[in-house]
Amino acid sequence: MIKLTIVALTLWFIWFSNTHFDEYTVRILNNIAIFVILAVSYNLINGVTGQFSLEPNGFVAIGAYVTALLLVSPESKQYQYAIVDPYPFILTLHANFVVALLLGGIFSAILAACLSFPVFRVRGDYLAIVTLGFGFIIKILAINVPEATNGSLGLNDIPEFSNLYWTGGIAMIAVIVVLNIINSKFGRAMKAVRDDEDAAIAMGVNTFKAKTLAFCTSAFFEGVGGGLLAALLTSISPDLFDFFFTFQLLIIIVLGGLGSTTGAIIGTVLVMGGSEWMRFLDEPIHLFGYNAPAMPGMRMVVFSLGLILIMLFAREGIMGKRELTDFFKPRKKGDK
C-alpha cells in the first residue's frame, strides 16, 4: 500500500510540475530525473554490490552518442560533419525515440558484459583504475573517430524529445527495477559480495554472475540516461563526458548513502537541484540594509560547506543503507 501511494504521488507530481511550473523549473526537474536514473543504477554496482567502479561517464557517453546518431536526420548529419565525411552507414542510421533509447542502453549493456570478464579479475582500487581507464578511452575515441562522432565538434540539432513525462517515467521504472533486483535472490548475492566476497564464494555464491548482472543493469540504465540527456540538451560533445561526470554521481550516491536507492534519489535532488536553486548567492544580496556585491561562485562555496557538514554528521550518508519503506515497517520486539 505504501509503495502504491509513493508511485501515485510521484505520477501526480510529474503531471502537476509539467502543467504548472515554469520552463526553467521544469528543465531543472528534467535534469534531476535523468540523474536519478544514473544515480540509482550506479548505486547498484557501487553501493549494493560494493564494487568501486568509476565507469559511468563511458556508458553515459555511449548511450548519448547512439541515441543522437539515431535521432539526427541524415541531412543534418551531412551538414554537421565538417572535419571529415561520415562513414556511409552513419547517414543511414535512423530510428524513433523509444528504439533509440533502448539501443543506447543495449549497446552499453553489451559492452559492460564484454568488459566484465577482464574487469572483475581485479578488486578494490585496481578495479577503480581499470574502470576509470575505460571512461577515458571512450572519451578519446569520441574525439579521434570523427567519421562516427564528428570528433570534438560533437553532434547538434538533436530533436528535443525529452520531457518530464519521459524522464520522470523512466526514472520511476529504473527505481522499481533496481529495487526489485535488490530484494531478489540476486540482490542478496550482490550484498554478500559487498560484505565479504571470499565468504560469499565459500558459501557457494556465484560472485562473478552477481557482479556482472549489477554491472550490465547499471550500464543499461546509464546508456538510457545518456540518451535522455542528449535529447534534453539537443547537443553533445566529448567534453560533456569527462571524469567530473562520474565524480558528480559518486558524490550523489555517497551523500545519500551507499546501498540505499532512496538515498541516491535524495542525493540527486540535493546535488543537482540545490546547486541550481542556490544561484541567488552569486548575485548582489540586499539584507538588513547591507548591500553585498555579486560574488560569482559563492553558491558553490556554501553548497560545498553544506556537503562537508552533512558528511561529518552522517558518516554513512543521509540514509545509510536504509530505504524509505523501512521507516513504515512495524518494529519487532527488542528492536531499538
Automatic annotation (TrEMBL):
Q: Name one GO cellular component term.
A: plasma membrane
Which keywords are on file for this protein?
A: Cell membrane, Membrane, Transmembrane, Transmembrane helix
Q: Where in the cell is it found?
A: Cell membrane
Protein name, entry field:
High-affinity branched-chain amino acid transport system permease protein LivH
Q: Name one GO molecular function term.
A: branched-chain amino acid transmembrane transporter activity
Membrane among keywords = yes
Q: Is Repressor set as a keyword in this record? A: no
Tell me the lineage of the source organism: Bacteria, Pseudomonadati, Campylobacterota, Epsilonproteobacteria, Campylobacterales
Superkingdom of origin: Bacteria
Q: Which organism is it from?
A: Sulfurospirillum diekertiae
Which Pfam families does this entry report, sorted A to Z?
BPD_transp_2 (PF02653)
Instruction: Please list which residues make up the signal peptide.
Output: none
- Give the InterPro entries listed for this entry: ABC_transp_permease, LivM-like
Q: How does it sit in the membrane?
A: Multi-pass membrane protein
- Residues crossing the lipid bilayer are 31-49, 93-114, 126-144, 164-182, 249-274, 294-314
- CDD domains recorded: TM_PBP1_LivM_like
